[in-house]
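User: I'm curious whether this sequence folds into something compact or stays loose and floppy. Could you predict its structure so I can see for myself?
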Amino acid sequence: MSTPVSLIMPAYNAAPYIGEAIRSVLAQSHTAWELIIVDDGSTDATARIARSFTDPRIHVYASTGQTGAAAARNLGFAQARHNWLMFLDADDRLRPQALGSLLSAATQKPEAGVIYADYERMTVQGQLTGLRRWLPRPSRPTGDVLPAFLYRNHIVNGGTALIRRAPLEAIGGWNPELRSSNDWALWCLLASITPFHYMRGLTALEYRDVPTGITRQHNTGREKLEPAIDFVFTHPLVRARLGEDELKHIRQRKEGRVHLFFALQQARARHWRAAFDGLWRGLKLDPANSPLALAEFTLALVDGCLARPR
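Assistant: Here's the prediction. I'll summarize afterward.
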């Protein structure tokens, strides 16, 4: 009997993309799934489009107003029936073999609470983009991944990962009080209680690079991340795993990584001054990462130069 999966899709004003996201689920080679769509107070045709799909495996719920992605995911989680879960955004696309391949890896790694793979970026119009897609994939952490995930979010999008129900319940799901980076916080808390397994060689998701305020406002975005950093580095589950000195060292490197993240976003958006400012701040806090940071920044600069102006 096939292992069933609950896919949870929060959606807010996603009318231009949600049909494509739903069709990518319908196209899965693994057919034992349910798709739980949570319309989070949309004011466009999102709910109507979602309900136009008549497959009985698709269920549409509505939140009470706009609650935010984390609360919408928790609402969907509360409705989910199965022991494996995936959180897929309404503007992304799953590759057809994604669920089947991830579940195959889960069978081989019964100790892992999270199974994850790679993604490729695409433009708003749905065209694959970015120089990284032509380069060899770097190996991502597997096993006890907590220190690595404290430093860097290696699961950029929930649509690349399967999560077991038990550890997700143990940490209480998503934290809706965090305005930003609640996905990174979730991975860190999960990593504090369960091993992860990275499935090298699998691209599970096509991630739509939709420009938002957080990618365009370096200082504002940087301030939004502070509550998530404080939450994670002071959380009892994390502090029980690592000593004070190690946490302090990783946190400083994380601060540098945050600056670099925004530098990359600014470079892709052609905001050159903010990009170089972020790079300088990141290297100052995390000089050990200089070679990789400079390589990533160079790719982002070229991406920005090649991209069409938005």
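Summary: The chain has a mean pLDDT of 90. The radius of gyration is 19 Å.
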